[in-house]
Amino acid sequence: MSINENSVIRARLPSDLLSWRAPNSDFLDEVSLWENARRIFEDVNIDLWRWDDSAFQKAREEEMVLSSGFAYIRPERVEDWGRITKRFNSQNGLCHGATTVDGHSAVVRIISIGDEGRNHLQVLRKIARGSDSLLVDNHAVPLWREVHFEDMVFGVFPFIGCDLFDIYAPWIKNSVGDIVDMILQAIEGLSFVHNLKIAHRDADRMNFLVQWYPESLANMRVPTIRPRVYLNDFERAMELPTGVLSAETDPLNDGYMRIVAPEARSGRPYDAFKADVWQFADSLWNFRSTVPAIDEVLAAMRDESPSTRPSSMEARDSLASVLHSMVPNDLLIAPRLLVDYYVEHWHKVNGLEPYVTAPRA
Q1: Average pLDDT, stretch 197-223?
Q2: Segment (H or E) for 184
Q3: Quick one: which H or E segment has residue 125?
Q4: Which residues 6+ apart lie within 8 Å of 238 measured at CB?
Q5: What are phi and psi of 89, to 5 degrees?
Q6: DSSP string of 31-75?
Q7: Which among 241, 234, 308, 242 has a CA at the least distance from the CA of 277?
Q8: Which of 316, 304, 275 lies closest to 186 in space, CA to CA?
Q9: Among 57, 193, 320, 331, fewest CB within 10 Å belongs to which?
Q10: Is the pTM of this model over 0.85?
Q11: How far apart are alpha carbons 143 and 141 in whole angstroms?
Q12: Is the pLDDT of residue 37 over 70?
């Protein structure tokens, strides 16, 4: 594109990340926003998916299905879910489904505009690419490439099968063994970034992705292989050499709506790594494995006192010790939920926290 063409396209695009996230809070504005950006990606051979009538973004019908190693479907689910690897429902305007030049399904995300989002970009460059991205205990979603346009940097990431929000949904036939394995991997992912002195600061279970749901209860068999869990969305992540955040250094007053650890609202300095542990465990508040030793580890992670709450490394090791001491068939059982899943889901999609009105004991 010429300099003039670049200037015209740039003038049509937002000047800050908040405007990308929720362009006038209107779905049609989000469509228009990414259509204005389409030429940017055409020039680097990335095809942005197009919306259908239901707010889903879909790949072209003629595009060949190509495995990238990040999204799979159980044979019994092919008829129901075969389309999901070519369909994307973004939670906000920051992300968009796409296909790379070599045919892989991807997600494009606006990472930074000018200086805004530079911290996010630096964290991704540290953990989501390079030799550290190959380490087995690094669960960060890989950053496939960066796309630079004017003052903006976009990231291109692999499309991954599912998020962990629905891991105990009634229509998903995950056993306790399936669920706890995914939880353990998620904790390992937090442990890895914490060892690098990076606090995630948005460790809700929705920000963890998985290649597929094992659904052991569908055929009452322990899976021969397990899907890999990935840690996603480092928008709020911070490198903290001491791990401590204070009221002066904690950018918590940025419209963030999710529940955070009690100490993060105290106005006093706090351990951001242990706050991640609390937030992740608390996002699983509705789940009970019915195995006391497992539920005790998760309860300890939700301990309101950070001094007695385990670190992510301690929680990982404790849960792994319990899990590995058990016979896999013993975990081929259904979980128990404190409240109906649909109650929890309704609160989530409406931006409400269910534990404000529901018991958590």
Answers
A1: 96
A2: helix 176-195
A3: helix 118-127
A4: 119, 123, 198, 199, 201, 245, 272
A5: -120, 100
A6: HHHHHHHHHHHHTTT-EE-EE-TTS-EE--TTSPP---SS----G
A7: 308
A8: 316
A9: 320
A10: yes
A11: 7
A12: yes
